[in-house]
Structures are given as C-alpha cells and as structure tokens.
Amino acid sequence: LADADTQDDRTLHAQRVADLERMKDVASLSADAKIGVRVDLAAAKENDRHTQRMAALEAAFKTKGGAP
Hints:
The chain is an all-alpha fold. The protein contains two helices and no strands.
C-alpha cells in the first residue's frame, strides 16, 4: 500500500517507536525499572495500534478494488 494514509501511519509509527526507544535508553541509564516497564507497555500498545490500523487500511484498500 502506497497511499497517503498508509504512509502517514508508517511515519507516525516510526516516530513513536523511535521516541519510545529513546525513553527506554534513558530509563536504562537512570536504572529506573518502573519507567522501563511503562515504556515496554507503551511500545506494545503502539505496535498493536499500528497493526490494527494497517489491517484496516488494507481492508479498505481491498474493498475499493485496489487489489487483485
């Protein structure tokens, strides 16, 4: 899928994942396990959100007749 909505979500996902990775690094450097756990949870939620959004976009694309 190369439409604008898909590219926008991929960009958003990449930005969020990068932010979460930086937060995880900071938590590790400061030896704050609680923040590390919260960042892991946020990362899992973001991955779930992105997976669901991609599935919805793909389904919409197929119903528009964009796929064989």
